[in-house]
Write a structure and sequence with these properties.
513 residues, alpha+beta, Phosphorylase Kinase, domain 1, Transferase(Phosphotransferase), domain 1, 3 domains, 13 helices, 28% helix
Length: 513
Amino acid sequence: MSNFLPVGTVLNGKRKYTIESTLHSGGFGNTYLVKGIAMDENIAQEATYTIKEFYFAKYCTRAADGSVTVADASNASRFNAAKADFYTEANILHGLKHEGIVPVNEVFEQNNTVYYVMKHLGNTSLDQYVMERGGMLAEQEALRIIRLVAGALAYLHNQQILHLDVKPNNIMMCTGRDGKMVPVLIDFGQSMFYNNGKAKTNHVVGGYTEGYSTLELKQHGADRTFVPSYDVYSLSATLFFMLTGKDPDDASQISKRSVYLAMPSNVTERTIDTIVSGMAQNAQQRTPSINAFLAQLSGSANAGNAAGMQGMNGGRVTDPTIDDDNTDHSKMIRLAGIAVAVVVVIVLVVMAVGKLGNGGQQPSPSNPTVAQNDSTLADTAHIYNKVSADANADNVKTDEQKAGAKPTVEPTTADKQPKKESAKKPSTSSADASTASMPTNGTVNLGYATWTGGLRAGKPHGNGTMRFRSSHSISGCSTTAQSGDYVVGFCENGVLQSGALYHDGEKVETFVR
């Protein structure tokens, strides 16, 4: 006999519900679309609801009268324990009040099992919503939706509840009060409920959705302790889907490179890095909470405290805005600056251009300026501007300065130290020309790559990060950069002069043009 009750069956709670159709069957229950009579003051109106029935498919059978029985008496204790858990969880859900969580109207028993009644939210799930809009969403729309889902999860986590099955088809899109489509979480069949961080019930999570579940759920089910990062992983994977229209790779295969390659070119690095952190394989390295996820997404998170920006496949995500070990990155910048300085000194000696003054000094290795913890890639520019001033100001000269021309840029703080060559103020032909040549910080799309850092006249100039979108050779570097690779280094008038090439978060080589 079918696991489902037949269409037309009447269920008796506070009101009568007639089964119209079946919706879904899982390991722990069946879901039905039902009709019921709701009273609006003295007027009876037919309303549509969704009902979830506890049905432990591994141990249950359906009798002819619709009642649920245990096929093997030796499994009766397991069935009864799981049914008690389901009843407890249904009552907890009944007490939840959040617009982003499907409301539970009532819980009742019939047919030797338990039912709970939910509001029917229509037929448009998030995956259908995305497909109807061309297969992927614009970043702004995807972020609006994911923040609302995150708000619902934060509410659950405050109640010590993990959803453990967040994915596009467990999110229904409904019309909100402002007329916009808003997400509502459904299907709490995998949820775990905790008290002081310990599981309230004996329910063991057996569900695993490829692309959306952590490896922990695949390997041994949910922990008996409260681990919010499980839901953070699924939330990040859902954001990935909205932006790409594709399911992410399985947790055993996901990598930072695969995430970057899948993203449309107009998605910001801050959003991509938030997904990377949220989907780290190791729970200790993953974004630890919903609040940390939202903070990183908005750019207000301290990377060390919020997410650690740890890498997928057990490795750390090496990001130019994070250098909490104060080693390789700062050394690379100092060494690159020293190398460029030596070249400049040799050229100046050969050309006999003026006195060297302080131009031959190396930057002090004991006082590097290191990019501190900050998960917002957009802040890279002002961090590296300071690095540039400390490491290169006395050593790197522009082509115009090498040729003896007057500078067209306001001197940096380092340049204002007593020097014979930099004592004069720059002269410009007009205010507009001066403004156009002033260094700025920002992001520019170069076609084959994206540069974030110092800019002058719209070209990369100064320290920053170049992330490649296609294969590209780099002068002075023996390795050809591939899509997804990036360089942390120094540019002059749009040309990379020195830096370090990274692949999958690991440094490949340091180079000087």
